[in-house]
Amino acid sequence: MYDIKWIRDNAQAFDAGLKRRGLEPLSTKLLALDEKRRAAITRFEQAQARRNAASKEIGEAKKAKDEAKASALMEEVNTLKIDLPALEAEQNKIGEELHKELAQIPNIPAADVPDGSDASGNVEHHVWGKKRSYAFTPKQHFELGEALGMMDFELAAKLSGARFVILQKGLARLERALGQLFLDTHTAEKHGYTEVNPPLMVRDDTMFGTAQLPKFAEDQFKTTNDFWLIPTAEVPLTNLVRESIVDEDKLPMRLTACTPCFRAEAGAAGKDTRGMIRQHQFTKVELVSITTPEQSQAEHERMLACAEAVLQKLDLHYRVVTLCTGDMGFAAQKTYDIEVWLPGQNMYREISSCSNCGSFQALRMNARYKGKDGKVRGPVHTLNGSGVAVGRALIAVMETYQQAAGSIAVPEALAPYMGGLKTIAKH
Question: Where are the domains of the chain?
């Protein structure tokens, strides 16, 4: 979301940022609408002021026993009382129209974000680890899981339809262990995130705050009594500061949660139809930071390092890419994607996105901070990242640690969570 005053003062930079997103200039249209809104406000305020002044003059006219003037003033006041609701409705209507227009515009990219129209324009930032060699042809996770009898898509389809899975026995425990490892890592003193157990259902204004609404409503699941199922814990975690003023000495605020996530996957027909890559329901550990504008760039790099740390603990090969302007999410100012190597697919797949949203979400939430001098400084900056997607981490562990017989070796980092189980094998 944008502050129209910022657009008024930075129209050229605003349009240049939109151009990098592949969009037409919008400042002229928005500023014209804003002028119309401000004119309507002026008309309303002038009518209101005149009503108040005329009401005062009625008393003075009556005191002077000027009945003709008092009568004329009373008629004027009555007319203004009739006109004021219409004038107020006009300014509100134009204001809502401007708000709707602003809500549909994506965040403009940071200066150091590479230009590009799609994922082909992403730039590799760095690589960690190496691809493993196997004396056999590595299988994909769903081949391994189904052969083990612990991953069932057909039974899930009977219960819920496509894009669901039932995990059992060792794989169910392995997924739980991954979530626990991630949470324990991020809540340890070095990472310093506070664990939160948030609601999984939220209201419209909460989804609006993190920019899932109104533009991406079709990607979400909505209940019959008008709650939205969260697509990520970013939504409730970030909104913990909505409509509030946070003391600067409490920033950065670092929050984490392991929750189920729900996505309609609109437009995903035909994509990743086999396996767990693209599910309607999945588990993810989310990282959220609320900070000052001065700290947000450094916090972004720190968040990326925290997300990488859990993959390094599991000794999973991955690369980090900086997303280009055409591949970034709607609310992001800059995004790093972590892509883990999947031997069974013989390709990198996204397992985490770490984004700095700047003040974009904070303006939608009316979330501000107060300096140490007691003065309100303006909107906070918000950041979010997967720390990491648990389902995709399960896939990566299965494919990376698979053995020739189809069993899965348990990574050393997960041993404390697996009750002594060192290998997941068919029994």
Answer: 4-103, 119-424
CATH for 119-424, among 3.40.50.300, 3.40.50.720, 3.30.930.10, 1.10.1060.10? Answer: 3.30.930.10
Return d(Cα 13, Cα 20) in angstroms, integer. Answer: 11
Contacts of 390 (CB under 8 A, 6+ apart): 175, 178, 179, 182, 258, 282, 283, 284, 285
Q: What CATH superfamily classification does 4-103 receive? A: Serine-tRNA synthetase, tRNA binding domain (1.10.287.40)
Per-residue pLDDT tens over the stretch 372-420: 999 999 999 999 999 999 999 999 999 999 999 999 999 999 999 999 9
pTM more than 0.85: yes
Angstrom distance (rounded) from CA 362 to CA 241: 9
Alpha helices (runs of H) in 215-371, residue ranges in sequence order: 234-238, 296-313, 360-365
Peptide bond into 379 cis (omega under 30): no
Q: Please, what is the end-to-end C-alpha distance for the chain in angstroms?
A: 54
Strand runs labelled E in 175-237: 194-195, 201-202, 221-222, 228-229
Assigned token pair, 177? 């262990």
Contact (Cβ atoms closer than 8 angstroms) between residue 324 and residue 121 = yes
**In this structure, is the dihedral angle defined by the CA atoms of residues 227, 106, 114 and 383, taken in order, positive or negative?**
negative
Distance (Å, whole) CA 105 – CA 215: 9
CA distance 365 to 426: 50
